[in-house]
# Entry
Amino acid sequence: MPQNRFYNAFDMQEWGSGRKPDYRSPFQIDRDRIIHAHAFRKLQSKTQVFLSGEYDFYRTRLTHSMEVAQIGRSICHFLRSRGDPLTDDFYIDDALVEACCLAHDMGHPPFGHSGERTLQELMKRRGGFEGNAQTLHLLCETMYQNESGVRGMQPTRALLDGVLKYKKLYTEFPTPPVSHFIYDSQSLVRDYVFGDASIPGPLMRGMALNDFKSVECQIMDWADDAAYSLNDIVDGARAGFLTLERVERWAAGQPVGAEEQRHMDTLFDAIRKDRLESAFSKKIGAFIQACHLRERENFMSGQTNRYRFELVVAEPALREALFFKKMANDIIFESPQLEQLEHKARIILNALYNAIWENYAQRNERIITILPASVSRLIDAEKALDGKARRICDYLSGLTDGMIIRTYRRLFDPEFGSFRDLS
# Structure
């Protein structure tokens, strides 16, 4: 197979050192290291929409990530099949895009977006918490954490850039943001991604820097949008949250034009005929084929083809995805059942964070030992309180739904605590 000229040594350079070359490409190594990581396996027990373990047919963070990866690979294949500007020796690497897609949710905490919002509130004065920033934190620092210290997975520059949906630092916003940022400590990673090139002033205004993405990141982002805008609807209907009656009541309060009415007619027909999965699978295929590449010029386009080209998605597909995302948000995510989940997430995460803080950061002498020894050592090694808070946040965000509920019950439920409960 001819060498892929789309990428150069700049793209394949690794953050850190320690990789030994073998029969795989650098991007295949990226993908394989993610698949075999503990943090990736934990996604099977983390909430996507519904609490992990509550139903047996809906998507978890793991199955969602796998679906995003499949869509991302298919976009790469579709773009390559279109020809110009891509050729047999000049194309977007599907292993790299797959790695970006598989990794994109690894930093998200238990209880889905409810957990993310709660951790952001807890960390607001100590550098914030953001699921995508936490993914970067895992890849660069904590993914292969062990007794001898902390290290990441030595990702390539292209992979790091491919998961950087947001590039603006927490303190670069005029007021503390609730999302769409990276940690201040990750400024070195951002500098590395750009090869230490100076960021032009206009990109620092508003959200321009967050919108400045590599083509692989754009593919991952659209694959993610395609997956959850459609699949959340399918899961919501299967779980009984999204019914014809609820959609009709919701639509009565929306500005529904002819285009939106067609989308609802398709949805209603699929629900009535019990063909929702197949109908929405076809929509994913249409979303893939709504993509094409366009050449662009910017301060990075001379350094790498990843910024020389951008993904363009047809406007009708963008509008359809936005329509179904709003429907899912209004009918499913803001339902009493999921609002109850958010309430539970707040209680559990606040209680655990405060208990750990009191025992590991607030006092000079520890009252009780409630964390694994490896986590205790990481917290103790931090001299500043902000560093200790980050390690506590790392621990809590790395727990699965089941792990965090069991930990909470061991600490606060008087009826839970026999030796059988301690595993």
